[in-house]
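for the writeup, i need someone to sanity check this before i put it in the appendix. the sequnce is what the collaborator sent (i think, or maybe the updated version? ugh). structure was predicted straight from it, no edits. if anything looks off just tell me and ill rerun, i have time this weekend
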Amino acid sequence: MASTDAPTPRLRAGSYYTAAELAVLARDALEASGETHASAAEKLGKKRPAVSRAVNPDTASPALCLSILETFAGYTADAPAYRLRKVEG
C-alpha cells in the first residue's frame, strides 16, 4: 500500500518515476484536465474500471498511465525507466 505521507510527485521532464508515482501523476493530470474516468476511458478506447485502476498507486498500469499523461498532460516516457519528456508539437 502506498504511504499517505509521501510527497506528491510533480511532472518534470527528465525526472525518473516509479509505477506508483506515474499513477499519481496520471490521476493529477486527469483532475487538472477536468476529465472524468468515464470520459477519459472513452477518449483512450478503454473501459472506465481500467482507468480507475491505472490512477490508483496500488493497482497502477504503467502503460495506461503513460497514455493518460500523453493525452491529458503532454508528457511521455520510455519504459522501464519512466524518464518523462515533454511531447513535441
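Confidence is low (pLDDT under 50) at residues 1-5. Residues 22 and 36 are 18 Å apart (CA to CA).
thx in advance!!
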